[in-house]
Amino acid sequence: MDLSKLPIKPTKRSLATSPREIFKSLTLRGSIQNIWEPQAEALAGWEKDRKAPDVVIQMNTGGGKTLVGLLIAQSLVNETKGKVLYVCPTNQLVEQVAAKAAECGISVATYMRSRWDNASIYDTSLGPCVTNYAAVFNGKSIFREREIRGIVFDDAHVAGNFVRGQFTIRLSQGDSAFKEVAELYRNHFARNSQIQQFEDACAGDWLALLFVPSFEVSSNASRLRKILIQHGVHTGDHRFPWAHLKDQLTHCAVFISGSGLEITPALLPVTAMPYFGSDVRRVYLTATMPSQVEFLRTFGVGKVVRVVPGGKSGEAQRQFLFLRGADDEERRKGALDLVEKLKACIIAPSDRAANEWCPPAVKFERNQGHAAIQSFANATDAEKLALAARYDGIDLPGDACRVLILAGMPVGEMLIDRFIDQTLRIERIRTAHVATRVVQAIGRIFRGNTDHGAVLVANYDLERWLVDPQNLRYMPALLQQQVKLGIELQRMVEQGHATLPDLLSAVLAGRKDWDKLYADNVGSFETYDQNPEPQWFADLVAGERAAFDKLWKGNHSGAAKEYASIAEDSEARDARLSAWYRHWEGLAHSLAGDHTAATRAYLRAANERSELGRPVVKQGLVVVGGELKPSPQAMRIAHLWEQKGNKIVQEIGKIKSDLAYGPATNPVEEALRRVGELAGLMASRPEKEVGTGPDVLWRSPEHNAGAAIEAKTNKKDGGQYRKKEDIGQFHDHIQWLEKNFPKEAFHKIIAGKKHYVSGDANPPGDLRIITLEQFQLLADRIKELYEYVGSAAKSGDVGICVERGIESLGLRWPKCIDSLESSLAIDLKAVEPSQADGGD
Description:
By secondary structure, this protein is of the alpha/beta class.
């Protein structure tokens, strides 16, 4: 054979780096004929700053950002002659992007499910590789060892969960390691009066959620590692996050809940990965402009170039309808009546909530996979699909589904999100999380500017959240306007000018009168700046990123300084956020060998947020120094001490024993009153003393503030807080307080177990549920105070001693009540299964 005559055809690499020039050279094979104006604007904006390491391009879902991303990826391949990735959230989207590339004539490789397609295109740097976040960020990623020159992150606004999943070891209740790992921390929760919540979590109670303090995680890290290895964490799916975490367990957070156990970093350590080096160019495609804070938390990137093209591409026509009813049960029935003959997708915040829509809906189970979604998409009948907390990864565009029902406030899937959102309640982060999930949910059925349909809001709390201008600021401008138009439509219905069935029929049929009404009015509504976070908050999160990166890399002294600085800076602005930073400051000090500083930081964090955990202090009370003047609260405590002395310490034992669940509520109410009194507050029992008002009232007259406490400690396991006898009663108490103490503001508290709140109830937005265990913890701190006063007052002024004690133990008003772990009643609101009806 004459080898000199082999028909070799050398590959000719394209030299074009302009996305527009690349597009002109393509052989178009599908529906794409030209570049739309917004796409051209996006490409021009990127090309202007193409050398920038991080560029965000915001385009509406369905606005053609896939083509923009593919052209940019190919441009980076041609320019760098290196390897470029196009990263998607799910395999379904990988397939869609690959199909779009084929339609445009762009050659790409794909990698998913550990399998390559057209790998040579990527290997020879002729075209990008389309893959998913899991493949890129997992601890054994094949891409880490290759020199990546550019990355396009698609749907960057939903990347957080997908990336965090690659750094998180999840142990379900059924996992063989779950019980052994949880048992490592039993003694801590027993010492901190959280043993019942611990038992509830181990028994599968979804509401139970515990944070394992860092001092417990770090001291048990070697035992934790041993248990995980014994149970094969280095095999199966766990091996991917294990590769990240195996040498970093002392730096991780551990959460235990009824849904399982998670081991995860406080922030995503992405900056340690090669993709975020200074020589890699990154492009983020997003449907909603992510805030600087969210970018820092997800990608570790603070400064980005932002490109926001104009035009109307992807501006789907959405009609918001707010369902009315005496409660959410009536709203649910009204929604189902409205869509009886229509196909509809229902998104509920949990399995429990999704079940209430079935039948007629069928709940999607994860193990059914994409086939079940495709079956619903192809159905022509009036089917109903219920999704439980699925805000991303499922697409039902166009005729696949034109009616979306939002059945509740969205909650986080990851335990760390639930803890920050619902337990710590760092409100700025929580609001951004809720907004992102709402935008994601709406994106399930609206994928382009030819899409039209309706969003039915069938939950009172979600409606209240949506209409708040402070929350709307976190959403895209058009979505803000569509929500405001929905509010006006509701007013038209209430005034008799329109009906919900006619409005819904009009948008689904594409009636000209609706189109004119929409076109004439939607653009008239005011919009708010979509980057609402103040600079101080962005600066704090940038500091948090710097502190965490030092911690992760083992620079513990440097991390301690960074955490201490941002904790100090945030204390006056957001005490909860400051407590979170203080806790990690404590870990950094401990790992650096400064155990005294660690104890002080841990205690300051726990004094602000008790759920962060209090370490055992062997050397006695850690007190603050300096000149102090006794406050009225301290003087009231000093007066009690001078009256009874050490007898108070003995009495606290009985108070704690009286703080018990059961049918006898009188001892509980008196114990709650006495706790408040011993804490230096004016405490009474209005319902017993005057026949009306809350069970227990704490007041701090010098602050014009207090706490109204209703004891609901006689409910059985599986019970509910109900509309009339529990929530409605509190509305009556609020009126009584406003009449009798018009100038004072009161914390609204139910003292009782962490039960669900009945779906037909509308609790006040600030009504909190605090367990008796938390009041027992408060009693323990009060006992520490009186013990300290007993030992220190002999050599000094009692008032000054008390003042030092209440400051060191976090007993100053209002910290003494704010620090207790609590749950907002609106976060516990759900329609319980019928078997719970007899639970009270």
